[in-house]
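Supplementary Text 2. Reproducibility record for the structural model of the 123-residue chain.

All settings were left at their defaults, and a single model was retained for analysis rather than an ensemble. We include the record here because the model underlies the residue-level annotations in Supplementary Table 4.
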Amino acid sequence: QVQPVESGGGLVQAGGSLRLSCAASGRTISIYAMGWFRQVPGKEREFVARITWGAASTSYADSVKGRFTISRDNAKNTVYLQMNSLKAEDTAIYYCAACSDYGCYVSREFRYWGQGTQVTVSS
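Retained model, structure tokens:
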């Protein structure tokens, strides 16, 4: 079992920056990758970024490439999402999730989810 816990959400103006953190506890040795997803009311959950714990291989959604950066600190069992040049359309609940499978590119492959943290970007 892995229990991710997100933090760092809040209100920020368009063009600003915010850094989200996700601390994982439990059987963290089983983690292959950690990912960030976001969801707004009435829409399906959207993939944002993910990173593997071994090689730190990253993947990003086209909508955030060049603006968001995912990173990890294995010693702290923590993954970060640095969000720059924020836009109003980035407003969503951001979820951190852990995956124990190889690949980990789609939400169904992530078994363990955090409670979510709200990010609101004012325009």
